[in-house]
Design a protein that fits this description.
The complex is a heterodimer.
Chain A: E1 3-5, E2 10-14, E3 19-21, E4 24-26, E5 32-38, E6 44-50, E7 56-58, E8 64-68, E9 73-78, E10 87-94, E11 102-103, E12 107-112
Parallel strand pairs in A: 2-12
Antiparallel strand pairs in A: 1-4, 3-9, 5-6, 5-10, 7-8, 8-9, 10-11, 10-12
Chain B: E1 5-7, E2 10-13, E3 19-24, E4 31-37, E5 44-50, E6 53-56, E7 65-68, E8 75-79, E9 88-95, E10 103-104, E11 108-112
Parallel strand pairs in B: 2-11
Antiparallel strand pairs in B: 1-3, 3-8, 4-5, 4-9, 5-6, 7-8, 9-10, 9-11
The chains are: A mainly beta, B mainly beta.
Chain lengths: ~110, ~110
């Protein structure tokens, strides 16, 4: 069955530390891949997307993600986390286009001072 | 420019009442999506419009859920005879067309008592 998995429900990192949030998908073809961030009471904001081409994509707020076809993964990274990065992060996948986008369950990020 | 707006932001309904949730997409955006986000979960796809045509309603959980976009801009999600399991945040998103990223509104939090 098609699915999007975010293995980590909750991650805590210290401010200034590096961050990696994991995302794995199970689809028959290479999908369109997205990372969104959601702050409490807010809608989702797009951090970055991968449609094709260079497998390392840069996004807003200093985030990047790398598509690895062999591992069916699209992990999100940031070299130095800021307190304002505390939020819920969602990986999303669209097959063929993004009219049928499916989301993972999310990873909640807590940043320690 | 203005983003996606949704109203009301919060709605409390007694079980059995009908509710109507409104979405104003970004001007000029052809595609419009509705998602349901239960507490602690990622958004789940409900339905999709291309202009005024509802092209996919496979995610609507029951025939109590109905969505329309009669003039290809504003959309309304209606839930009849609300049940407690309908309590969730309802997110609306729009995109320029099906090939591009979706922009999300802040959501409507529905609580059914």
């Amino acid at each position: 069955a098609q699915s999007v998995t975010q293995p980590d429900i909750h991650i805590t990192v210290s401010e200034g530390a590096s961050l990696e949030l994991r995302c794995n998908y199970s689809y028959g073809a290479t999908p369109y891949l997205f990372w969104y961030v959601q702050s409490p009471g807010q809608g989702l904001q797009l951090l970055l997307k991968y449609f094709s081409g260079d497998t390392l994509v840069q996004g807003i707020k200093g985030f990047e993600a790398e598509f690895k076809r062999s591992q069916s993964s699209f992990n999100l990274r940031k070299p130095s986390v800021h307190w304002s990065d505390a939020a819920e992060y969602f990986c999303a996948v669209g097959l063929y286009n993004n009219n049928d986008m499916r989301f993972g369950a999310g990873t909640r990020l807590t940043v320690k001072p | 420019g203005a983003g996606v707006s949704q109203s009301p932001r919060y709605k409390v309904a007694k079980r059995g009442q009908d509710v109507a949730l409104r979405c104003d997409p970004i001007s000029g955006h052809v595609s419009l999506f509705w998602y349901q986000q239960a507490l602690g979960q990622g958004p789940e796809f409900l339905t999709y419009f291309q202009n005024e045509a509802q092209l996919d309603k496979s995610g609507l959980p029951s025939d109590r859920f109905f969505a329309e976009r009669p003039e290809g801009s504003v959309s309304t999600l209606k839930i009849q005879r609300t049940q407690q399991e309908d309590s969730a945040v309802y997110l609306c998103a729009s995109s320029l067309n099906g090939k591009y990223e979706q922009y999300f509104g802040p959501g409507t939090r529905l609580t059914v008592t």
